[in-house]
Amino acid sequence: VLTQSPATLSLSPGERAALSCRARQSVSRHLAWYQQKPGQAPRLLIYDASIRATGIPARFSGSGSGTDFTLTISSLEPEDFAVYYCQRRRGWPPQYTFGPGTKVNIK
Amino acid sequence: QVQLVESGGGVVQPGKSLRLSCVASGFSFSDYGMYWVRQAPGKGLEWVAVISYDGSSKFYADSVKGRFTISRDNSKNTLSLQMTSLREDDTAFYYCAKESADFWSGYCDYWGQGALVTVSS
User: Minimal Cα–Cα distance from A93 to chain B, Å?
Assistant: First the structure.
């Protein structure tokens, strides 16, 4: 089980966003973050907790290990207002779990 | 560039079957694991199934195990999802997604546009 907080975050462009993802048991650093905009497929932002995927701007950063993870957007751009999901692989045979998402709204 | 194009979605009655396809291009399809992920309208993401690069290993979410079958044809760069005994709670957008470099990681770096499956009487 992954929990994400807050469920909704209302911020203004230029502000810093910090999104939390918590796992019930340690996932080491095997965690990803995705961004999804309305009507679009998800986009991989971060994998292995802190590695930016190809083409992802440097304002996106990931941190954490074990059970507590954070996605930080250093200075929100208008295109960053979206829903963000964390994801982990659990066990073997693999089962993949997504968190419920955090919606970042324009304040 | 990498493209994943799903097809086969539609409206189907409960208990019936439907087959989704995903045609891949722009990368070496036979080198990567592939996933199906679904999203009920207005809801979050749910992993459905994964298949290894060569089709030899397949795993499913408990919610679809025994009803859905994932397969691939590497000669045609095509991923498929055969869905049987469909239920109303299977209604969702179904995305095919390409795994990034790490086998079984679940990290999906490219996604299709989604195919809507509506299960309704």
Answer: 7
Q: Which residues pair with B59 in a beta bridge?
A: B50
| Kind and range of the H or E run holding A46 | strand A43-47
The whole-angstrom separation of Cα B49 and Cα B34 is 8
Q: What is the dihedral of CA B69, B73, B76, B78, to 10 degrees?
A: 30
DSSP strand pairing (B10-12 vs B45-51): unpaired
Q: Flag whether residue A47 sits within 8 Å of chain B, measured between CB atoms.
A: yes
DSSP state letter for B103: T
Per-residue pLDDT of chain A (107 residues; tens, 9 = 90+): 899 999 999 999 999 999 999 999 999 999 999 999 999 999 999 999 999 999 999 999 999 999 999 999 999 999 999 999 999 988 888 889 999 999 999 98
Option in B35, B47, B100 nearest A47 (CB): B100
3-state secondary structure of B90: helix
Question: Which single residue is written with the structure tokens 């498929």?
Answer: B80
B45: nearest CB among A30, A42, A93 = A42
Instruction: Kindly tell me the burial class for residue B62, based on how many C-beta atoms sit within 10 Å of its own C-beta (0-12, 13-18, 19 or more).
Output: exposed
Cβ neighbours of A93 in B, within 8 Å: 59
